[in-house]
Each structure stands twice: as structure tokens, then as C-alpha cells.
Write a structure and sequence with these properties.
The complex is a heterodimer. Chain A is mainly alpha-helical. Chain A is built from 7 helices and no strands. Chain A has helices spanning 5-12, 16-35, 40-64, 77-103, 111-145, 150-173, 175-178. By secondary structure, chain B is mainly alpha-helical. In chain B, helix 5 (114-128) runs antiparallel to helix 15 (359-395). The interface between A and B is large, with 58 and 59 residues.
Chain lengths: 182, 498
């Protein structure tokens, strides 16, 4: 059954962790430009043009976890494919915007195809880092949302089931049986 | 000693009549038979491998290999491929013993021959008390902030000690901290590589990994051979890091580690459950248990291949691309990197990006070097203390008077105090001198643990879960590879330390 408007809105509320990781990832460039003594304008452009698309895409990824589909806790492949397309687009946006704003021209190493192919390759690294952090942050955000958001409760339940599957062994066979064997 | 059959179902002398089944391995206390927990799903994201990745993705990946690529061309990277692949197999074999028994590899070594374990106890102290990794990161931070590196390094050491002393359960804290740091590192490296590299860089870097057998002329010299040997040892986790991984597996409850309590921070030491005097074994005659065992093997194989091998490769390729971009933008960088002054080289690479109009990247690059230093320090100090505490607790007379947490804290603060002393008053050799010494000494420990692995897994485990012949062949190759190169360097060039 296709999700209704209310579910989509609630899924949208899940976006925060992905937005945060994307924004921080993109803003690394800009924030540190200031430290290196470059003009604030340059820093702002570098930060915004990468942080904005990465944050939007990151938020979309988080929201997709609340909708039916392949995005599930503990899975890497869907995230890998998502960023395989998303990361090169974000970099293209940055390269074109900074070029036009700061230089008045756009320069892409290796042409559009070469540029996108290279960015797609690097996207794998970004995807691993993104999922790594997302899996850490998302459960905390879901706990906050759960009392007022049914979609968050469902996703949180999936995370709990996943965590239980991972730690089943320890709970079932760990502490209890350790006692008395010394 | 009965090590050739499946677990003995005989009652022990102490438990006569109670039908306590045990597995006898070596001269130490037999392991009681217990149930093997169910394995988690094999496809997963977070697990104990986070430690190996945190420790492994260090100076080797970010500096030593990019440097060799600039000097000898991308073809030299086939040696990196050999080094990391070998380490992935070693990781699987370390996990075999730890998951089957809940014991560390040090305990396994003691079951074979106790002096073997004491050898690693001494080597760990000799190699790991030097604060080399922290000082490297702090030097990079000085480039960014201007704060003297000794101040940052000493503060970092004290911070590490306080954090681990206050933690309730050390494993959870460390896993969270390292996960966030690695996540930031991987994302940052990807962004820097995305902004400075080109398709050609990455194609030449990857293609170079398959130039099997390529040895450039300059490599076989007294000046470079020891450096290459050290770099192969630094490909992925080096020195004793793989041995410490068995302690992390145990503490995370992998396999029979589920029957062993977790180590707690000093402030919560009183809550720690009593540590059993030995590990446990599962019934390898039971098909259900063997099915669960295969599940655990699939779980750790996923860790070894995707998380460990994959991330290590990815970060190294990214850093090599970054170094190639720096050399292309500023030709002088190549000479500085070749000169072997690490701080100067890292700084030159950072400047190169800055002068090419990507000023930000220079700072980001140095920021990541600091992050790598912090990552390595957190992981190394924790692991060192964990390993030494484990050996002391089980094998030093009277040590069981204390809890494992107390011994952990004693080793942790001991290594921190020594580190501060060296940073403030030690030989002003600079960070590089320390790191190069570690790189070469690591090789010896790695050859020795390959031999230990062969002995422990083939003699101390029941037959059904012993390694296959081809795995033994690879680990045997590892022993010859590490020790052979060390001895060749010594006799052919008369150089021990690169």
C-alpha cells in the first residue's frame, strides 16, 4: 500500500540525522577555510555549495528509512547506490556554483563524464562514512520522535529488532551462564 | 594432552560424577564445554572490526604509502595489496581462536608454550610505550592552530586516561568514540579526494596494485629496502594490533566471548563480574553447534572483507590520489616527500593544495592527520593496556587479588605517565624517529604471531574447527614474508631500522 500524505510528512521528520551529517560533511571545507585565513566570502561559498546538496540528499536518505522500500537499518547496498548518484550530483553542483560565483567560468577536470565518473568512485567512501555515522545517530533521534510520530516508532522498532538480532547471543547465553562456571 | 580429537566427554578429577565436559588444550586448565551463542546476521555495519580499522588506518595509509608511490610509481602498490590481504587472513585466524574459546591469542600462546606469551608481553612494552602516533597527529595540529605539539600531545594523553578511567563499560565507549571519529575521517577523506583528485590518478593507483612482482631499482638499496619493509608492515594493522583484536572480540561477546564479562572503567571497577580463569569450548560434535559456528565465521568474514579490507583500501587509495595531486600541483613537493621528513612532507602537501586555490584543503588535510593520530592513540593505549592486563591477570602470581579493571587502569596510566615523560624530557628525536623504529620492530612481532597462530589454531582447537590447509599455507607465507624480509634487510644491507 502506498504511503499517504500524513505518513510522508512524518517520514520527513526523520530527516535530521542525514541533514546533519551531510551538512557537516559539506561544511568541513568552508569552516576550515576561515581557519586557513581565506576571505569569509570564499569560505561561505565553498561551504554552502557543497553542504546544501549533501544535507538535502542526507535528509532524503533518512526520510526514506521511514517509507516502504529497501532502506533498512544495517544495510549498506541501498545507501551505496543512493550516494553513487547523489554524491557526484552534489559535487557537480558545488563545482559549477563556485566556478560561476568566484571565477565566472566552470572548469571540470576530465570533462563532465570524467568528472562524474571520478566522483562516483569516491562516492563509495562517502557512503561508508555516511552510513557509519547515520547508524550511530539515527536511533537517538528516533527515540526523541517516537512519542509523537508513528513512522519514527516503526523505524525505531526495526532498529531494536536489528540490535536484538546482533546481540541475541550475548543476552541469551552470556551473563546468566557465566555465573557458576568458575 | 589430547588435542587431536573432538571435545573430551570425560569428567575432570575435580568434577568426577558431575559429568562436566571439558576440552583439554595444552597444560593449562581445561575449558568447560558451554553452548555457542547464535551468530548475528552476517551482513552488518558496526562491529569489533572498528578497532582494527581505527588502528590500521594510520600513518601507513596516510603518509608512508603515498610517499612510496611518489618515489617509485603506482606499481609499488602491489606490495600494499599483498600486505593488506595477508592481514585480512590473519584477522580471520585470530578470530577463529578467540571466537571458539573466548580466550585471547595471548592465552592461546601460553597454552602452547608459556615463554611465547611472555615474549609478546615484553615486545608490547618495548614497541608501544612510545607516544609516536599521538605526537604525529599533534604535529599536524600545530600546523593549523600554532599550539606547540608537546602541549597538545600531553593534554591528549591525559584526556585519554581520564576518559577510559571514567567509562562504565570501556568497550561501548571506545566503540562509540572510534565509530564517530572513523565516520568523520572517511567522509572527510572522500570529500578531500573528490575535490583534488582526477580519474587518471585513481586509475593509475588502482592499476598499480596489480603490477605483481614489480621491484624498482632504487627499492633494493640500504636506504629504501628497510623503509619498504616497514611500510608493508604498516599496511593495515601492524605490530601486535591483530593480537589485541582478539581481546576486543571477546569483550564484544563474539562467539564464546559471550561467556566472559566485560572490562569496566576504573570508577566502575567494583561492578565488574569476576573474570573466569580460562575460556570455554563448544561441542564440536554437535551439528547444531557447528551450524552456529559457521554463522560466526560468515559474520567475521564479512568484517574482514568488506569493513576491514575495503575501508583500508579505500582510505589508502584516497590518500595516494591526494599525494599525487599535490605533487602535480607543486613539483617541489615530490622532493620534500622523498627526503623522508614526515612533518615537512605533510606540511608541503597541505601547502600545495592551498597554493592551487583550494586553500581549505590544506587545512582539512592536516586536520585529518590529527584525527588519525587521535584515533590511533585512543585505540593503541586501550589495546596495550587490555593486552598487558589480560596476561598479568591470568599469569602473574597474586595478580588475581585485583580486578581486571584495576590492572587495565594501572597499565593505561603507566603508559600515559611514561609517554608524558618522553614528550617532555625524552630524546628530542622528533616524532618521525620514533615512528620509523616502530615500523620495523612491528615486522618482527608480526612474523612471530603468524608462527603462534599456526601453533595455537592447529594444536589447541578441536579438529572440526581447525584451519584449512590453504589458510595454514597463507599464514605460513606470512611468517616467512615478515621474518624473511627482516632478516634479508639485516644481512644484505646491515640495516635493522629504516
Amino acid at each position: 500500500m502506498a504511503p499517504d500524505g500524513h505518513s510522508i510528512r512524518q517520514a520527513g521528520e526523520l530527516a535530521l540525522p542525514g541533514v546533519a551529517i551531510g551538512a557537516v560533511g559539506g561544511a568541513m571545507a568552508g569552516g576550515l577555510t576561515l581557519l586557513s585565513g581565506q576571505p569569509a566570502g570564499w569560505a561561505a561559498v565553498a561551504a554552502l555549495t557543497l553542504a546544501l546538496p549533501l544535507a538535502l540528499l542526507g535528509g532524503l536518505y533518512s526520510s526514506l528509512m521511514g517509507l516502504p522500500g529497501p532502506f533498512r537499518p544495517g544495510l549498506f547496498a541501498p545507501a551505496g547506490l543512493f550516494w553513487l548518484i547523489g554524491f557526484p550530483l552534489a559535487r557537480l553542483t558545488q563545482q559549477v556554483s563556485t566556478g560561476l560565483i568566484l571565477d565566472g567560468r566552470v572548469l571540470l577536470a576530465g570533462g563532465v563524464a570524467g568528472f562524474l565518473a571520478y566522483q562516483a568512485l569516491v562516492s563509495l567512501g562517502f557512503a561508508i562514512g555516511f552510513v557509519w555515522l547515520h547508524e550511530r545517530l539515527m536511533p537517538h533521534w528516533l527515540v526523541q520522535l517516537a512519542p509523537r510520530n508513528a513512522v519514527a516508532r516503526t523505524v525505531l522498532q526495526r532498529y531494536i529488532e536489528h540490535a536484538e538480532a546482533l546481540s541475541r547471543g550475548r543476552r541469551a547465553h552470556g551473563k546468566g551462564q557465566t555465573k557458576g562456571v568458575r | 594432552m589430547d588435542t587431536s580429537s573432538t571435545p573430551a566427554t570425560e569428567p575432570t578429577a575435580a568434577n568426577a560424577g558431575q559429568e562436566e565436559r571439558v576440552w583439554r588444550a595444552g597444560k593449562l586448565e581445561p575449558m568447560p564445554i558451554r553452548t555457542l551463542p547464535d551468530a548475528p546476521p552476517s551482513v552488518h555495519i558496526l562491529g569489533p572490526t572498528v578497532f582494527l580499522v581505527a588502528l590500521g588506518v594510520g600513518m601507513g595509509e596516510s603518509y608512508m604509502w603515498p610517499r612510496l608511490v611518489l618515489l617509485f610509481g603506482p606499481e609499488i602498490r602491489w606490495l600494499f595489496l599483498v600486505g593488506v590481504t595477508l592481514q585480512a587472513v590473519v584477522m580471520l585466524e585470530m578470530a577463529r581462536y578467540a571466537m571458539a574459546t573466548g580466550e585471547s591469542i595471548f592465552f592461546g600462546a601460553a597454552r602452547v608454550f608459556k615463554p611465547l606469551m611472555w615474549f609478546f608481553f615484553v615486545v608490547a612494552i618495548a614497541v608501544y610505550i612510545w607516544p609516536g602516533h599521538l605526537s604525529a597527529g599533534a604535529a599536524a595540529l600545530e600546523e593549523i592552530t600554532g599550539i606547540p605539539w608537546t602541549v597538545t600531545a600531553v593534554s591528549g594523553l591525559i584526556l585519554v586516561g581520564v576518559v577510559f578511567s571514567l567509562a562504565k563499560v570501556i568497550y561501548s565507549l571506545l566503540e562509540t568514540l572510534l565509530s564517530i571519529l572513523i565516520g568523520a575521517l572517511v567522509i572527510g577523506t572522500a570529500i578531500v579526494a573528490a575535490m583534488v583528485g582526477t580519474w587518471d590518478d585513481v586509475v593509475s593507483t588502482v592499476a598499480g596494485m596489480f603490477a605483481i612482482g614489480y621491484i624498482p631499482d632504487g627499492a633494493m638499496t640500504a636506504a629504501w629496502f628497510p623503509v619498504i619493509v616497514g611500510s608493508i608492515a604498516f599496511a593495515g594493522p601492524s605490530g601486535m594490533q591483530q593480537m589485541w583484536y582478539t581481546l576486543h572480540l571477546r569483550d564484544s561477546g563474539a562467539g564464546m566471548g559471550a561467556h566472559i564479562p566485560q572490562i569496566r572503567g576504573l570508577r566502575h571497577a567494583g561492578e565488574e563480574e569476576a573474570m573466569p580463569a580460562r575460556g570455554f569450548m563448544f561441542d564440536t560434535d554437535n551439528p547444531e553447534e557447528m551450524k552456529k559456528w559457521r554463522g560466526w565465521r560468515r559474520w567475521v568474514t564479512f568484517d574482514a572483507l568488506l569493513l576491514f579490507w575495503g575501508i583500508t583500501m579505500l582510505v589508502t587509495i584516497s590518500f595516494t590520489v591526494i599525494a599525487q595531486a599535490a605533487a602535480r600541483q607543486t613539483p617541489g613537493v615530490r622532493e620534500i616527500i622523498a627526503s623522508g621528513e614526515r612533518e615537512a612532507a605533510l606540511s608541503a602537501m597541505a601547502d600545495s593544495f592551498a597554493s592551487a586555490g583550494s586553500s581549505v584543503l590544506g587545512v582539512i588535510f592536516l586536520g585529518f592527520i590529527s584525527l588519525i593520530g587521535l584515533n590511533a592513540t585512543l585505540g593503541l593505549f586501550d589495546s596495550f593496556s587490555r593486552g598487558q592486563a589480560d596476561m598479568t591477570y591470568h599469569f602473574v602470581k597474586g595478580a588475581k587479588k585485583w580486578r581486571m579493571s584495576h590492572l587495565y587502569a594501572a597499565f593505561l596510566w603507566g603508559v600515559i605517565a611514561f609517554g608524558i615523560g618522553i614528550l617532555l624530557f625524552g630524546p628530542a628525536d622528533g616524532p618521525s624517529g620514533i615512528l620509523d623504529t616502530l615500523a620495523f620492530l612491528s615486522t618482527f612481532a608480526m612474523g612471530a604471531y603468524c608462527v603462534t597462530l599456526l601453533l595455537v589454531n592447529n594444536r589447541m582447537l578441536p579438529k572440526p574447527i581447525r584451519p584449512k590447509w590453504w589458510t595454514n599455507l597463507i599464514i605460513g607465507f606470512g611468517a616467512v614474508f615478515y621474518l624473511g624480509m627482516l632478516l634479508y634487510s639485516l644481512f644484505a644491507y646491515g640495516v635493522v631500522v629504516g
